[in-house]
Specification:
Chain A is α+β, with helices and mostly antiparallel strands and 146 residues long. Chain A folds into two domains: 44 residues; 100 residues, Ferric Hydroxamate Uptake Protein, Chain A, domain 1 (Beta Complex), CATH 2.170.130. Helix content of chain A is 32%, strand content 35%. By secondary structure, chain B is an all-alpha fold. Chain B has one domain: Arp2/3 complex 21 kDa subunit ARPC3 (Orthogonal Bundle). Classes of the chains: A alpha+beta (146), B mainly alpha (194).
Amino acid sequence: MVEKRTLVFTMLALLVWAVLATGLLGYYYIRFQEHVDLSREYEAVTMRVNIAIDYGNGTSVWYNNTLVPLGATLLNATETVVEVQYTYWPQHQAVFIDVINGIPTTETHFWWWKYWDVEAQAWKDGEVGADICRLRPQETVMWQYV
Amino acid sequence: MRSLTTGQIALLSALIAAAVGIQLAPRPIPNVETTSLFAFLVGILFGSIIGGSFGGLVMLVNGFLSPWGFGGLNIPFQMAGMAIVGITGGIYKRYFGEVSPARVSVEVTILGASLTLLYDLITNVGVAVPFMPKSSWHIALAASFSLGAPFSLVHVASNSFLFGSGFIPLVKALKRVPGGEVLWSKRELLSSQC
């Protein structure tokens, strides 16, 4: 038989947990609603794109439905999901990616981007620098370490 | 209310000074405080009335001089919340001598968490009051409680730790201080009456 005193303190501990958990749930809900309202407010000037990072070792990370400003370049969009270092090459009038998430371009490996061609249903190589390529809504792009 | 000896008055004054001093000291993390533990301890040492008055007084001073700013309309709620902590200390005194120190630590940890949460709920009502004329009272209360929940979590966690780890050592230390040599347990009470 459980002692009454033990029962009282156990109930008290459970009550604290329940009230705190309810409060934190409410906090999460309010913050979530704020984000929903904010994204609704900026819907006209933002778009969603899908970005994949293929690290070349069998690991691919997808950042689906990434919210970026309308007219964002591939470079802008990539910078919102991963850490990027790049160099501007005046002779090409474009940037080349040096490092993504700490993985650098070397003499044998480099970062290359592709986009998903919806009509052809296939990946196609990017033809311009990441700072020149302007993304379209719902576009899917991939960085490959090749 | 029983009368106090000179030593007890001196000890109570020192505890008030210490509690006010720590409460008013600038802190890097809000809601980490020692006043609750002091109020609870004073309630145990001197009874519910003095414990409650102690909590109320410290929060009254804090309301005007807090490094976080003037308490305003929330001051009465803070005083009431902290007074309850002191009063509960006086009530718990009747029961805590019946069990082992380890069990007292666990019980005091749970009491610390419960009283801190009750304090936060009361002060959240104080935060919600100014917003009640602008929106319905239940929305103001729910928003106040929900937006304060992360702070409550820090408050409850820190006070649980303080009550659990600090109560027994403080009780032992105070027994050696003039004015703090009260009879802490039923066993001590009974042996004193023999």
